[in-house]
Design brief:
The protein is built from two helices and eight strands, in the order H-H-E-E-E-E-E-E-E-E. The chain is mainly beta and 182 residues long. The longest helix is centred in the first third of the chain and has 16 residues, at 10-25. It is elongated and about 55 Å long.
Amino acid sequence: MRGFPPLHLAGLLLVGAIGLAAVPAAAQDHPLSLALSGGVGGSLDEDESGFSNGTFQARFAVELSRQRSLGLRLGRIDFGDEIVGPASDVTLDYFTVSGEYLFDEPSYESGLYLGLGFYDFSSTRTDGRSGDETAVGLVIGALAEFALAKRWFVYGEAAFAYTNLDIAQLFADLQVGIGFRF
């Protein structure tokens, strides 16, 4: 079976997180949010890959209190035909679970988060063999939400991840997108 088993359990973790957060979140006006974003990213310790690779991410957040949220992110950095170490046709898929601490600013909301990530690195090695590997890692990031309407917002995020992958260990991305509270 290809892929990292915890990535296959992402749906179960999502349902569990919603269930655990349902009681404190029930008192909130709009305790759940979904943001879809795209941007650029890459490996920080692999010179050949660059930082201009396309990224996509879905973020689901459950508000636990006014300044705390549980954030779940599912995303991909697509290195395309770039060569990363001894590999080409590279993608990095990830699923992260993080605690978010939010700050109310006059015209937006900002936050910091720290969490655990599950990373699936897929590639074709230059010798023709499969270069797939998986690892657990840490993620840290900063985010901002700018309100467009009562439920809609523009979303921005910068993230840094450390993994125990053989080919590269440090990854970063910048994302911008749109979100909805429900």
